[in-house]
Please model this.
Amino acid sequence: MFDWFDWSAHPLNVQTFLAMLIGSLIVLGVVLGCVTYAILLERKIIGYMQLRIGPNRVGPWGLFQTIADVLKLLLKEDIIPNKADKTLFAIAPIISYAPAFMVLAVVPFTASHLFTAGLDVGILYYIALSAISVIGIVLGGWASNNKYAIIGALRSAAQMISYEIPLAMSILGVVLMAGSLNIVKIVEAQKNFPYVWYVVPQILGFIVFLIAATAELSRAPFDLPESESELVSGYFTEYSGFRFAFYMLAEYVYLIAMSGLAAALFFGGWSGPLLPGWLWYVIKAGAFIFLMFWTRATMPRIRVDQLMSFSWKVLIPLALLNLLLTATWKIFF
Model:
């Protein structure tokens, strides 16, 4: 039965399309479940790090807190400001969320490639799709007709464009080593000599990737597009109810997708001894997610005037140096 969901092994026909449709719904359900408990875990971890208890009222150990929060958002009145561009205001959260979910198609969660497209241009697909989300953010900020929302949207656009360059360049080092843009082949290449995950030879690229990914996800210390103390809630200041939930979903689905990408590119994906491949993937991606939560709990927000210069003057030169070193290594070894 599981072979039915290995899309990479079958030609595109009606049966394969049906399998892709059902598989997408299964992945959507699993991801929504992961997002629900990732939010709860983040609140718990940050609570413990700041000597607070965290959510503990709804259900045992607060396990139903996020479910209650989601139900509250879905039952809220859908408010659209009078002077907003109503059409753009309505579709902007969907434009932001859809690419976040679509990039999961190329993230190989298991060794058997279940629910994975296995594209030969998987890296290009991921980078291209993830760049579309910023359009939904800019449209949402502009359509709100609110000064805080438009400032947050413009900050987000500038931040994402600036940090997307070092992010892509850090991935290029891995692509050079593996000789492929296919993420499945990149994972398999890490089983070859010298039998180490790419995080070791690509440690500089991983550091650049980690910082740029944090900025791309707009998480602390790069959460300037939402910075509550300056911009209320940034680009989604005027959003409420299920449209607000779409923006929040996009943020956490991207977090899961980025963690899955990091596990595949730098930590050997599903490879590991004794445990099943999917469990190794969960452990590696989970460690990346925990690092993001830890960073949010401990790092202060950087100043807005430091945001752009850090990318152009520090990260991009480091990413270029990593590319140069990787290319030199490939020529001589």
